[in-house]
Amino acid sequence: YFETLGGIIFCIFVVVYLVEIIATWIRRKII
After folding, report:
1. How many angstroms separate the CA atoms of 25 and 9, rounded?
2. How far apart (Å, rounded) are the C-alpha atoms in residues 6 and 14?
3. HEC-encoded secondary structure of 1-31
4. 17, exposed or middle or buried, with CB in 10 Å at 0-12, 13-18, 19+?
5. What confidence tens digit (pLDDT) does each residue in 9-22 have?
6. How much is the pLDDT for 3?
7. 20-30 exposure pattern, b = at least 16 Cβ within 10 A, e = fewer
8. Which pLDDT value is given to residue 1?
9. Number of domains in the chain
10. What is the CB-side half-sphere exposure of residue 30 using CA atoms within 13 A?
11. Can you tell me where the transmembrane regions are (predicted)?
């Protein structure tokens, strides 16, 4: 159970991290 929960949390952190990188990249492209 804990391993699955940890995997889900890890995936969420990775997705958020990628979204932040993409958002920063888009801002640099626009500006």
Report:
1. 24
2. 12
3. CHHHHHHHHHHHHHHHHHHHHHHHHHHHHHC
4. exposed
5. 999 999 999 999 99
6. 82
7. eeeeeeeeeee
8. 65
9. 1
10. 6
11. 6-26
